[in-house]
Automatic annotation (TrEMBL), chain A:
The chain crosses the membrane at residues 98-118, 124-147, 167-191, 203-226, 238-258, 297-317. GO terms for cellular component: ATP-binding cassette (ABC) transporter complex. It is a multi-pass membrane protein. Belongs to the ABC-2 integral membrane protein family. GO terms for biological process: lipopolysaccharide transport; response to antibiotic. This is Transport permease protein. Its main location: membrane. It comes from Actinacidiphila glaucinigra. Pfam families: ABC2_membrane (PF01061). Residues 92-319 form the ABC transmembrane type-2 domain.
Automatic annotation (TrEMBL), chain B:
It comes from the Bacteria. This is Teichoic acid transport system ATP-binding protein. PROSITE patterns: ABC_TRANSPORTER_1 (PS00211), ABC_TRANSPORTER_2 (PS50893). SMART domains: AAA (SM00382). Residues 41-263 form the ABC transporter domain. It comes from Actinacidiphila glaucinigra. InterPro entries: AAA+_ATPase (IPR003593), ABC_transporter-like_ATP-bd (IPR003439), ABC_transporter-like_CS (IPR017871), ABC_transpr_TagH-like (IPR015860), Bact_Polysacc_Export_ATP-bd (IPR050683), P-loop_NTPase (IPR027417).
Amino acid sequence: MTPRDGQGPRRAKRTKVSTVSETTHDGAVAVGPVPPAGGGLTPSQLAAKYGLSVSGARPGLAEYVRQLWSRRHFISAFARARVSAQYTQARLGQLWQVLTPLLNAAVYYFIFGLLLGTDRGVDNFIAFLVTGVFIFTFTQSSVLAGVRAVSGNLGLIRALHFPRASLPIAFTLVQLQQLLMSMFVLLAIVLMTGEVPGPSWLLVAPALVLQCVFNAGLALVMARLGSKMTDLAQLMPFILRTWMYASGVMYSISHFAAHAPAVVKIALDVNPAAVYIDLMRFALIESFTSEQLPPHVWALALGWAVVMGVGGFVYFWKAEERYGRG
Amino acid sequence: MAEHNDTAPGGERVPTVIVDDLHIVYRVHGAGSGKGSAVGALSRLVTRKGGNPNVRKVHAVRGVSFTAYRGEAIGLIGSNGSGKSTMLRAIAGLLPAESGRVFTEGQPSLLGVNAALMNDLTGERNVILGGLAMGMSQDEVRERYEQIVEFSGINEKGDFISLPMRTYSSGMAARLRFSIAAAKSHDVLMIDEALATGDRSFQKRSEARIRELRKEAGTVFLVSHNNKSIRDTCDRVLWLEKGELRMDGPTAVVLKAYEEFTAK
């Protein structure tokens, strides 16, 4: 294998015709079991005659969904295996599932609650902040896992056949599991800060489902981008941090943006991360009333989930046959 | 293989794999030679001139064409790095072609020792995940689990199946991978140097398993550096050298030429 840089394939393409005739007629000894190819048919005619299909071709969208559904056990088993392998190298093991979100919340409380005092206009700031941090972390880690979902599992992709969308979806499920752990911590904190469970707590479930679909779609998009653009893994932390600061994780958007121009206000309100965070706050925190919610918030949450979920899936499927290239 | 339906009603031979002018190019990141400095990367971004020297293209398969028929057992020979495994991956549809096409009957399966599983998971998880990824149902996996573990012989020296794969020796890992892949029967089967791994007793077991699989499969490809096992199992041999098809013919003829070539 002589490694030639840059122009190797291009040059090869130009001389394609002569190379091929050399290998098939001069180079290859055409004796024995090699009969004249199907009576003068071209390879594709021969393939059509015997009903052969192009290897590794991308299936249609409906067929792809069916294949993916038939691998649902693989997806869930993969996610469960990933979760259990996550902290095996650490001595405290699975305890980190709870410790990580707790420490995260403590750091943000120290900086934004105590040092910077962004708690203006927020009654139950601890619950407000912790909800924001946990819900945003769910989206953030789904994106980061999505970027590496294809590029970090090339060995698996080049070894076995399965719909590649299994990987980003499985990684989103891993993050969902992590979030459910965090939710227990979150509920404990919220109760400790004096909130009383009410019927609005039931809204947690639909909000989480919508966010999960949104995250899966986003992870699928990031997986396709990350499989081609290797720099993305380096760039994403900065983009995500900017996104977090714009999403009202540690301050109240409705309070801070009260005097902002209308365009800025709308942009902050339709931001999907802010939408899902606000829904969760509305569900859990008594003093976070519907006045603080942006208009049409459930429609926005549903819209983002559908657009991102379906769009991300189609976008990922479009490159299905190329993920093995790396 | 005479009892197989090798020929179509008209007496013609039925093709199972058609490879039409196949080219495969690998893009290797991080292979730059000092040119990949920060300043260089920045100036490349600004001027947009030339490709990234950090990405090197390796033209692994260069215009290979052949047709394989039902009932054939085809050996693939050639020196290391001649593109044998790469071509098999393309036939299996795991690696996209740069140009040219591969037509196959059904879904070909690649049985390789290079199949990377998940190193931080236990052998047990890998067996289950591998089976599910190959499209087995949960029940099938549960049913065959014991069989797979027993075949691999991983547990001969204690309970190793519950340890993470990263703690396995390379021979043990290869045995487990082969055992997982061999648990399923296949239409077009490609075996990539699977016979070379493992100790003598495992080799014997896997040879027997491959013979079984050959009976069930329509066409078998075998990559091996062991000319004896090629001679024993194959009736046709393709010789790849530097990504090009150098020779294609009956086993005896091609192996003779190959042995002359390698003796030099």
